[in-house]
Design goal:
The structure holds two protein chains of two kinds. Chain A contains 14 helices and eleven strands. Chain A is of the alpha/beta class. The chains are: A alpha/beta, B alpha/beta. Strand 9 of chain A pairs antiparallel with strand 11 of chain B, so a sheet runs across the interface. Chain A: Belongs to the TtcA family. CTU1/NCS6/ATPBD3 subfamily.
């Protein structure tokens, strides 16, 4: 017996919404999915008319659907925003080169301008080269740290007002769990906020915050959107993998748990009187950082100095290495005459 | 895992290679240095039995004295589950009582076991054998132990007479069927497990009141707290974390819940039990078999697995929870009109008695609660006017309109049987109004929600909605 669409449109339902369990027909699903994102955008006041918005595009399902939906909604509801695609080329052969082709196609299909920035341009290293240096363990740390900043750099370079990223509900729930497992209270506090912005950094928003990964796939499938769906060729982050499996188990038992976890995140905050790392700007590159020198600069310094493990693992080692670097620099510059500076450096570089 | 250096314990399977190597060398105790080490902990510390037990005893006392929350003349109810944790706790306290006066802990205590065998599918015979095991334990340790069947939570007068462990099993057929029915009507294992936890807590607190205890010891060890943290977050109870895992939980004004084993690791517990050759009534496997498909069980498996692979994860999780609090929203203008006390009382969930977290979120910001409402709306209502509604972003109004409708409907019902307000059927939306986000999920999608609510909940809801009704009537005259 065919199940009727639960919006009583008279058509037969062809899918069960993973988020709510309602049976819907294709059109009603599109309607529901798009209205939800529209609602998130308007209620969260994500964009202002005239904003120049960069969509962080990887070619994967989330960013492909995000680009398509934002373009559609922008036209339908006249947000008046100027959209374009921003891609980061990490330089991973067999993964990113293929996915960038997908982004290229998105660009043609949706008529959105595209800007590609590469790690090579920004940092002088491709991920392939980095992996050749440090091996397959921990390489995700480099990639993640560099990509976050690369988006900021790219956005600053293009003069955009806002970066929209394709983080979906599953990603955010996973991040909440990860931050608890890692004890990162500062991130736990801000990872569920839909807009992250600071005084002098570019606004980021997550229009797909309440969209389930499964529904995004469904949407792409029924709209026949082309996306790239291969895992990165380098080993996936093992620890995150545990959290992901756990989340999938939870979703199977109770589909609403993804939203429930986000709800928990939304209603939590750090207790008063607990010290949080303050946000400042890296003294070298000027981008947002929690430390005097940002992680990206430290890692880059390590790579350039042939100490690729710098920035991963024990912070005491980082401190020691940086001290020696600072000393070297001092010696280079003023032949060891600046004892005072050295002490200041040591203090500043405490991690 | 930890083990004693005794051949009767199987050390081949789950122990890392280095501990086995250590067996050959037989290292010395890390603390006293002149005894052979007999207890090997996961963090590579090795102690002789004597030092190990001294350390654990100190840990327990330190937790209590550091917090300064237990005083002389306090009367404490110890919650006993029959599992390893509470078996250890009981043993720890009773051995302490036998210490010399100067070292003795200065409080009196009673023990309570809540018999939830009916919802866990235990037969009468099983329950009887559990009870006799408890009675034996009580006799060995020379303590007063009470047993309280879970069915007590549906009777209006909770535990008129507290039953000692050595009395025969109480026969409560009618209550049993009610409880059974409540649990059968719940949608899934998670809901059942969650409700059981809440009911157990309720019983525990009311028993403490009955027995004139002002404090309750709960034997949660660090790994249990880690499971609780993740379980709470996964069931939408993030804002309640500070109460549910803190050392001292002060949600009830007259009874404080304390968790004195919070710094004990899994190693500590198995080590202690092995040293004293204690056998808990329930071993872990047997306990895990109830509600296998519940979020708590999945979380437990997840945390145990992480704990065996990454040793520092469990401490990280529960230390993280210490730094968290519920988000506070600035009081909105509309609320200032009403007396603060009344208002805060209205926000207390009738089941878990914690502040309902919907009040933490401002209505302008997008939130999960609203996203959920909107999703439901958008996938059920065919109305084209919805388009307009979404444009003017008034889902909140829209959904509350629906609520108002149902409230009005129920009001009409109330008017029809004016004198008999207590018999009116509670509408789902009204029930939900008085439950917190997490507790709402328990009853969501269950069959006949109005029928299955335990008495005390429906009574509390009726009382609250009546007061809300009265408040509305006099609202014009309130300053």
């Amino acid at each position: 017996m065919p199940i009727p669409c639960s919006r009583q449109c008279g058509k037969k339902a062809i899918l069960k919404r993973p988020k709510t369990g309602h049976a819907l027909c294709k059109e009603c699903f599109f309607y529901a999915f798009e209205s939800e994102i529209h609602n998130t955008i308007t209620q969260g006041k994500l964009f202002k008319p005239g904003d120049k918005v960069a969509i962080g595009a990887s070619g994967g399902k989330d960013s492909t659907v995000l680009a398509y939906v934002l373009k559609t909604l922008n036209e339908r509801h006249q947000y008046g925003i100027d959209l374009f695609l921003l891609s980061i080329d990490e330089g991973i052969t067999g993964y990113r080169d293929d996915s960038l082709k997908t982004v290229q196609q998105n660009k043609d299909d949706y008529g959105l301008p595209l800007k590609i920035l590469s790690y090579k341009e920004l940092y002088g290293w491709t991920m392939d080269e980095i992996v050749a240096e440090i091996g397959k363990k921990n390489n995700c740390t480099f990639c993640g740290v560099f990509r976050r900043q690369a988006l900021d750099r790219g956005a600053a370079f293009l003069g955009v007002d806002c970066i929209a990223t394709g983080h979906n509900a599953d990603d955010i729930a996973e991040t909440v769990l990860m931050n608890i497992l890692r004890g990162d209270i500062a991130r736990l506090q801000r990872c569920t906020s839909i807009i992250t912005a600071g005084a002098d950094c570019i606004r980021r928003c997550k229009p797909l915050k309440y969209a389930y990964e499964k529904e995004i796939v469904m949407y792409a499938y029924f709209k026949q959107l082309v996306y790239f769906s291969t895992e990165c060729v380098f080993a996936p982050n093992a620890y995150r993998g545990h959290a992901r499996t756990y989340l999938k188990d939870l979703e199977r038992i109770r589909p609403s748990s993804i939203l429930d976890i986000i709800h928990s995140g939304e209603t939590l905050q750090v207790k008063e009187g607990i010290k949080l790392p303050e946000r400042r700007n890296c003294s070298r590159c000027g981008f947002v950082s929690s430390q005097e020198i940002c992680k990206a600069c430290i890692m880059l310094e390590g790579l350039n100095r042939g100490l690729p493990k710098l920035g991963i693992g024990k912070s005491t080692k980082v401190k020691r290495a940086l001290e020696s670097i600072a000393k070297d620099k001092c010696n280079d510059k003023c032949n060891g005459k600046c004892k005072d500076n050295e002490q200041i450096d040591e203090k500043d570089l405490e991690f | 895992m930890c083990t004693l250096n005794l051949s009767e314990y199987d050390t081949t399977t789950s122990f890392p290679a280095d501990t086995i190597e250590a067996h050959d060398a037989v290292p010395f105790c890390k603390k006293c240095g002149n005894q052979e080490a007999q207890v090997f902990l996961k963090n590579k510390n090795e102690y002789c039995k004597r030092c190990f037990l001294i350390i654990l005893r100190h840990k327990f006392r330190a937790t209590l004295s550091k917090s300064k929350s237990v005083h002389t003349n306090d009367s404490i109810l110890v919650a006993h589950s029959g599992k390893a944790n509470s078996t250890l706790l009981l043993h720890l306290i009773t051995t302490d009582m036998n210490e010399s006066i100067s070292k003795k802990l200065q409080f009196s205590f009673k023990v309570l076991y809540i018999d939830d065998g009916i919802v866990k599918g235990r037969s009468i015979k099983e329950r009887e054998s559990i009870q006799s095991a408890l009675a034996k334990e009580a006799e060995n340790l020379q303590l007063t132990m009470y047993i309280l069947p879970l069915s007590n939570c549906v009777t209006d007068s909770i535990c008129e007479e507290m039953q000692l462990a050595n009395a025969p099993l109480m026969n409560m057929t009618s209550e049993n069927t009610i409880v059974q029915e409540i649990f059968d009507n719940l949608e899934n294992d998670t809901a059942k497990d969650e409700l059981l936890q809440q009911l157990r807590l309720k019983l525990l607190v009311s028993a403490a009141r009955k027995l004139n205890c002002n404090k309750i010891f709960i034997a949660d060890a660090s790994v249990d707290l880690a499971v609780k943290v993740l379980g709470n977050v996964s069931t939408g109870r993030g804002s309640q974390l500070p109460f549910n895992v803190a050392f001292s939980d002060t949600r009830y004004k007259d009874v404080t819940l304390l968790r004195p084993l919070r710094d004990f690791t899994r190693d500590d517990i198995t080590g202690y039990l092995e040293c004293y050759n204690l056998h808990p009534i329930f071993n872990c496997d047997k306990y895990n078999s109830s509600f296998p498909a519940s979020i708590r069980n999945v979380t437990r498996n997840f945390v145990y697995k992480l704990d065996s692979e990454f040793h520092s994860t469990v401490p990280t999780i529960y230390r993280t929870s210490e730094k968290l609090a519920a988000k506070r929203m600035e009081c909105e203008n509309s609320n200032t009109k009403i007396d603060d006390n009344v208002n805060s009382d209205n926000n207390i969930c009738v089941l878990c008695e914690l502040t309902s977290d919907s009040s933490y979120l401002s209505k302008e910001q997008p939130s999960v609660a609203q996203a959920k409402l909107f999703s439901k709306l958008v996938s059920t209502v065919a109305d084209t006017s919805l388009n307009m509604a979404t444009n003017s972003l008034n889902i909140h109004e829209l959904s509350s309109n629906e609520q108002i409708k149902s409230i009005n409907a129920s009001k009409e019902e109330k008017h029809q049987c004016q004198n008999d307000i207590h018999k009116s059927i509670l509408k789902q939306s009204i029930i939900e109004k008085y439950l917190c986000y997490g507790c709402r999920l328990i009853f969501l999608n269950s069959k006949q929600i109005d029928n299955i609510l335990p008495n005390f909940i429906s009574n509390a809801i009726k009382k609250k909605s009546q007061i809300a009704h009265l408040e509305k009537e006099i609202s014009d005259f309130l300053l």
